[in-house]
Design a protein that fits this description.
Elements (H helix, E strand, L loop, with lengths): L2 E7 L5 H11 L5 E3 L8 E8 L6 H5 L3 E9 L1 E3 L8 E4 L6 H10 L2 E5 L8 E2 L2 E2 H5 L10 E13 L3 E8 L5 H12 L3 E11 L7 E3 L5 H7 L3 H4 L4 E5 L1 H8 L4 E2 L9 E6 L4 E9 L2 E7 L6
Parallel strand pairs: 1-13, 3-12, 14-16
Antiparallel strand pairs: 1-3, 2-3, 4-11, 4-12, 5-6, 7-10, 8-9, 10-11, 15-18, 16-17, 17-18
């Protein structure tokens, strides 16, 4: 079994727990996930199996969409309702002021990764350090918020639909929103609804995961990589690529562009990169014995 499965991760478990369950079912393959979801969050979690693990980062790097329920007037230690409440404030902003605050959060910004996150520092997730009372210095990361739509709004809560770049922490975004409004805000519920062009119709319910359903929902690696430019090479060049050599390619490609490589007969070979103009080099190739 080689390919991707898009799991509908339920609330209350870690992304790693989803991987562990699949490892119990498929014991002879490498398995990983693409893009961690908080235990509080649900939704799209791509799982790579076997040879597909070579291409996980190219899925993790895609843009994301989330639907988030925000609780206003509350600030917690973790940025969501699973944390300890450290401050309560009276809500005194209008819907128009909320929309203005949301508009100000669009575009490029620098986010400080929350201590309660799976981001690793010195070999351990940040949350493991803070659980031992250790708070580490973190570097702000550049992220991009494509859009924030206000789906509904009541006196103390609202639902937002956020489209953003990889690496965006929705909890940090919500806390920034609370700071702008002067009331504080925390995540009440969170669901990932899209990754790139993947949406809810591709999902396998986590509770229904079996060998049979995994095979039924298995997506070939090349289908998950459709966002990359396709390059067809002849048999001689494919042989060179498999031997780790660069080959000439006379079509215009951007420098350092990541591409999908196919051989003349149409079969997917793997991922390559344009290192210099008109030259293609191998990067991640399928093992022909395992495909």
């Amino acid at each position: 079994m080689n390919g991707f499965v898009i799991i509908d991760k339920p609330c209350g478990i870690t992304s790693s727990a989803c991987v562990y369950k699949l490892r119990e079912i498929i014991t002879d393959k490498k398995i990983g996930h693409c893009g961690t979801l908080d235990p509080l969050a649900s939704g799209l979690l791509p799982i790579s199996i076997g040879e597909a693990t070579k291409f996980s980062s190219y899925i993790s790097d895609l843009s994301k969409e989330y639907k988030v329920e925000v609780l206003f007037g509350v600030k917690t230690t973790t940025g969501d309702i699973d944390g300890e409440i450290i401050k309560r404030n009276q809500i005194n902003f209008s819907k128009e002021e909320l929309k203005q605050a949301l508009n100000s959060l669009k575009g490029e910004q620098h986010q400080l990764p929350p201590m309660y996150s799976a981001l690793k520092a010195m070999g351990k997730p940040l949350y493991s350090w803070v659980r031992n009372g250790i708070y580490l210095q973190r570097k702000a990361r550049k992220v991009f918020i494509d859009s924030i739509q206000l789906e509904c709004f009541s006196e103390s809560s609202g639902i937002l639909v956020v489209s953003c770049s990889k690496g965006t922490y929705i909890r940090s975004l919500v806390e920034s929103l609370g700071d702008l409004l002067g009331t504080g805000a925390t995540v009440k519920a969170l669901r990932r609804t899209k990754i790139g062009n993947l949406s809810s119709h591709d999902l396998l319910n986590f509770d229904l995961v079996t060998t049979e359903t995994l095979n039924q929902f298995l997506i070939p690696s090349e289908e998950m990589l459709q966002h990359l430019t396709k390059v067809d090479l002849n048999a001689e060049d494919i042989k060179k690529i498999r031997n780790g050599l660069s080959v000439d390619y006379n079509e215009p490609l951007e420098k350092k562009e990541i591409i999908r490589i196919y051989e003349e007969k149409g079969s997917f070979v793997g991922i390559g990169q344009v290192n210099i103009p008109l030259k293609v080099s191998p990067k991640r190739l399928l093992n022909t014995k395992n495909t």
